[in-house]
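Lay summary

Proteins are chains of building blocks that fold into shapes. Our project writes down both the chain and a compact code for its shape. Here are two examples, one after the other.
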Amino acid sequence: MDKDAWLRRLYHPEPVLFITEAAFCALALILVFVTGNEMNPVSFALYAFSTYVLGIGIYFLVLIIKHSFDWGLPRRIRENRYAIGRYVLYGELAFGLAYSVLLTVSGLDSESSWMYAAAGYYLLIALICVILLRKYIQGTGEDRADGLRTAFHTGILMVPLTMAVITMVIMAVNGDQNVVYPDLFIYAVALFTFIFFISAIVNVIRFRGFSDPIFGSVKRFGMNRAIFSMFILQVAMLSEFGGEDTGMEFWVNLGNGMLVCVAISLITTYQIVFSYRELVKTR
């Protein structure tokens, strides 16, 4: 194999090889941070290799975006609102599962039941995504009553989620939680929170003119998740950087926790009441 072929294989590896390398780097970095071996010489070699893999990932992303415009994919998505919803739900599901894994790993490291509960919350959110995606693919837009039933059931599923949030807020206010993120994990949590927050805003704007109840469910559970993610990040930031001022931490957790509980309860109640009333009208 000549030099040019080697160089091309280096910056343009086979997709299967790239996915394998990316998975290896992700698992290896988690292991490094959890075990506290950030300054190990082998870890620095891993950092360099991970940077290379990240660069390849960005290169592939640019190619995908370029080809998507060549194929007219953005125009097709704009013209087909159901295509938009499907991609949105796939993204919500992927990020929800990834965040749940992150919180589970953090819980294993800090032995925190609070972290396990938060991971369970995002797993249930992922379950809601699966339900909505399944109904969505079946074409609920053609049967409004079926879509409203799905929205109502989604609202019922959001009730235990709301109760879990209230319980976790009480734990945070009472100081019963142990929120300790391994080293750089807190920045990953901040990144996920930013993604959820921006996604919720974009979905509200993107689906504002659609009457399909599935779209309404996507907007509302997205807002719930974004609000709770902000609270998790706030609790973690105070635990990590708040120092010894427990009084300030108590009042901040109490004030923001009350706002979170009220906001999520109102959104959940609206989801159930609105879908039920609309479902009654279709009978």
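And here is the second example, written the same way.
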Amino acid sequence: MQDPDPSVAYGNELLKHEQPAKALTIFDVLIQHNPDDIDALFGKATALVRMGEPQYALGVCYLILAREPSHEAALALQVKILMSLGRFDEALQVLSRQLDDSPDSAARWLANGKLLLRLERWNDADHAADEALLREPDLFEAWMIKGDVALFHTRSGDAISAYDRALALRPNSKSARRGRMQARNSWRLTYFIAILPDLLELILH
């Protein structure tokens, strides 16, 4: 049985069935016929990522963005690749430019916050989460960022509240439950340390 004629749809179907090498061949044929085929270029970048070739995929993302600077999927893939390569500052620059272009985008504030959290820029991450929640109050990942930041700063009550909001959105989230448990344990430890002098005084007298 012969393969169908090359098309973006067929290439994407191959990607869905975990056949990136075969999909890459399809996308390359399409690009040879039309070097400005954005959909084929994006398919190629995705196939290269699946094949463990992030550097080549990043180059294709640059080609896409040179032709269509606001291509959301290509921008997201670019950031993902940069992060996978450990080039966090470059990824943050891309996200910052995206925010400059669309400051009212909750998704972009959230992406910014997630990267800032990874860079352990706690206060900046918290601010980004607040901005995301201001635009979209039911963002699970934004509440998780706020919980993680509060936990780092040992603000146990704030952490518990944030994780509770996250759990209200995703009751079965293991990460939210784990964070809440850590915050609860931190609160107990803080409380015990606070009352320890009084306990010692009672014991000694």
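What can we say about the second shape? Residues 103-205 form a domain with the Serine Threonine Protein Phosphatase 5, Tetratricopeptide repeat fold (CATH 1.25.40.10).
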